[in-house]
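Risk register update: the risk of archive-format incompatibility is retired. Evidence:
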Amino acid sequence: MIIKLRIALIADPELPVPPVLYGGIERIIAMLVNSYVKLGHEVSLFAHQDSKTDGKLFPYQGKTSNKPVDIIKNSYLINKELYRHRYDIIHSFGRLFYLLPQLPRNLPKLMSYQREPTISQIIKANRLAKTNSLAFTGCSAYISNQISPFATAHPIFNGVDLNVYDFKSEVSTDAPLVFLGRIEPIKGVHIAIKVAQHTNKKLLIAGNIPSEFENYFEQEIKPHLSEKIIYVGPVNDVKKNEILGKALAFLMPIEWNEPFGIVMAEAMACGTPVISFNRGAIPELIIPEINGLKCENLEEMITAVYNIGKLDRQKVRKDAEKRFSSDVIVNQYLTLYKSLISKNV
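Archived output:
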């Protein structure tokens, strides 16, 4: 017998759920909401007013997560509803502050981190929370392991709807390399260009340029654009599927500790292997010779490009199905919900 749950899902206010272009966290929330509703659960979503959801939308009035007046407006909206009606669990991907009025209650609360956690806030929240009512997840063990010394934490990967991404068993001999993500230094776009130049491969660069990194694009990226190194701008899901599917490899020359990188799972869903520097969650996500190759420096990444064609794209897709599919991730969250609920009955 399937137990139907009443679930409150909380997003941050900056982007709609799902996002039009960039917005990894919002994609995960949309995946969860729509999957839960299809399974018969009742879902309330607190999110940007332009969100489109199968659940019941509670649109924010506050537009940012930074201005105190916006935070208070949104917190009032959330907690008025949570006190007014019965919920089985609250699951937040937004600010931890939104849960503050709920901490003393027996109601199960789950806070999910898709980025580096602020440990001081977690410690304070855990002290205020009723025993066994608050838990955390990280989008990788890299994130959850930072939390677990101070509070209950579980690693649950990000996932993708495999129906959105077409598996390509083969690519052409002149298939391009692809970089897809925010155009900023820590993402390593400049390094991807060097890899393409050294291997004489075509490189497609896709993604948004944050306003604070426009100079980076003008100085480090734009001078290298050519017939072989092409910037295509931000892309929607249809274009993303096309670009990733026809790629020889997806490059992640990251210069920071990547918490997960949803586009990795999207590439793998297309059968496209990933080549990445071995930082953050990458040791968990890339299985060498199965779904990609891990590197320590530019020279190793160049060598990896020459060797990546040896990988079986079918194995890449199978690994995505096993670890990163929306069905797998949804079931992991629902199992965790029920565990938390059972502790508070």
